[in-house]
Design a protein that fits this description.
The protein is α/β, with parallel strands linked by helices and 263 residues long. Helix content is 37%, strand content 13%. The chain is built from 9 helices and 7 strands, in the order E-H-E-H-H-E-E-H-E-H-E-H-E-H-H-H. A 7-stranded mixed beta sheet has the order 3-4-2-5-1-6-7, sandwiched between helices. Helix 6 links the parallel strand 6 and strand 7. Helix 1 crosses helix 9. The longest helix is centred in the last third of the chain and has 18 residues.
Length: 263
């Protein structure tokens, strides 16, 4: 089992799309995947076909972190809503807006380890746990990084997206001891929403190897089909053969992740 935190200190940089679609690619390759939605916006949860029902409330990540006891997350893990033959290999630790309330616990002694404790034993049956971080470096992202074995950053090749990825990179390097996770490391930077013919994108793509030496992975081109699948809460192939190009890109990224993890 390996836990991978996926982040960037900027919204709209492709974190959730990467999390969901790499989970999709890993499941198609036969791997068992747990997606942990650490963003109170709960976009990963929705895109995987899960919805919170206040008339029939079920435990979520909110309750798991609040408790912070060993293995408690097992009670909140859910199946997803996709109707595919491999969907049973993807499970979800879902989020909802109330997750934002956990931020107030940041100053509580040991709070940064609550997700790690909650997952302890709960994700042992999965090959990989993917943790979708919110677009910040605050308490919720710190919970994710404290629980992760490794981290990935997404990088939209524009000034703000690159700056956010660099901040995420530096935060890991400077704070992994304070996170009680001294072996935490960044294993890759994934360029997302890359558009050809845009001078700014070409410029920043050329700069990435110097900013992330040896860590720049396969680029994900900007394609409307990714947003279409996200909006409809469907796996990519449900939208037909026009998704083949993007499915192949995510398959390459999933293979790279497996190689890095030796999984």
């Amino acid at each position: 089992m390996s836990r991978v935190a996926i982040g960037n200190n900027k919204g709209g940089s492709g974190k959730t799309a990467v999390t969901v679609n790499i989970a999709h690619a890993l499941a198609r390759a036969g791997k068992r995947v747990l997606v942990v939605d650490m963003d109170p916006q709960a976009n990963a949860s929705r895109r995987l076909g899960w919805a919170y029902d206040p008339t029939d409330p079920k435990p979520t990540l909110v309750e798991a972190i609040q408790a912070g006891t060993e293995g408690i997350a097992a009670h909140a893990i859910s199946t997803i809503g996709w109707q595919t033959e491999y969907a049973e290999r993807i499970h979800l630790l879902p989020s909802r807006f109330d997750l934002e309330n956990r931020v107030s616990e940041a100053a509580v002694l040991g709070a940064v380890s609550r997700l790690d404790r909650a997952l302890d034993g709960a994700d042992d049956k999965y090959d990989i746990t993917l943790i979708d971080c919110p677009p910040s470096l605050g308490h919720l992202t710190q919970l994710a990084l404290a629980a992760a074995n490794v981290a990935l950053c997404t990088v939209e090749p524009e000034r703000d997206g690159v700056d956010g990825a660099v901040r995420f990179r530096d935060f890991i390097e400077l704070n992994r001891l304070e996170l009680k996770n001294p072996d935490l490391r960044l294993i890759g930077a994934i360029p997302c929403r890359v558009r050809s013919g845009i001078n700014a994108h070409e410029h920043h793509m050329n700069q990435l190897p110097a900013l992330f030496p040896g860590l720049v992975w396969e680029s994900i081109p900007e394609r409307a089909i990714i947003k279409d699948a996200s909006d409809e809460a469907l796996p990519l192939e449900a939208l037909g053969s026009r998704t083949n190009e993007i499915i192949s890109v995510y398959a390459e990224l999933a293979n790279r992740l497996l190689q890095e993890l030796h999984a």
